[in-house]
Amino acid sequence: MSSKYLGPVKWLGGIALVLFAFALVFPSISSAILSEETRKQVLVNAVPFFAAFIGILLLFALLIVLTAKRYNGRVPSRCHKPIERTMVAGILFSVFFLFQPFSIVPYRYGFLLLLGATLSFILWSHVVPAGSKVDDDLPPLGTRQHLIGLAATAAVVIGMSLAIINTNIPKEPYGLRDRVWNSYSDERKAETAAAATADFNSVETPFIVIFSLFPAAIVYFAVREAVAERRPTALPMPVVAAGRA
User: Fold this and answer.
1) What is the pLDDT of residues 119-138, one digit of tens each?
2) Is residue 242 part of a domain?
3) Domain of 97?
4) For the whole prediction, is pTM greater than 0.85?
């Protein structure tokens, strides 16, 4: 591992691991040194949570530092700006999803989109794009780069949508209490299952596809830039020593 990565990993990652270990062993330590009445206090019970939470923040800070060290000055503006705008769009859409009065479906996914887009924007905002000289030296993107980017986008949309659909597809008792569901006849159970599945396919599935477009767009911009052509570096002209007359 390069020395520029070793320091952050050692300090931020090491402290995070110590905090996670402390959160795991704190219940055993508290039971040995604290009275039962003290252990029931809210602040004492919150100690493992705060330790783990700070550890997660340190790991996120470590990710920011490593990403900045790796990509600062290396990402062209034609890639950096679209990714940043996609994250901003994700934040704006997620806020709308959380406060719109039309359907509960966008509300269910709005917080996840807001969390992911906000954290991604915080991370990406620490990456300094390449200078104008680097941008001017880049050949324009061709059809090959766009097609590869679109293929990666389609793979993300399909894979992410299928994963979310398989996780959230309606299952017994389809939002009903077990007692109510068990009281239904087989015919009514089949009707309820068919109605729930049809509603899921017509309302939630299209929104899941829209939801997956945000990370897929980021993948598109990143992949097309990763396979973009680079101008060959000009080699210095050899210096020929002048011969003696």
Assistant:
1) 999 999 999 998 888 888 88
2) no
3) 76-230
4) no
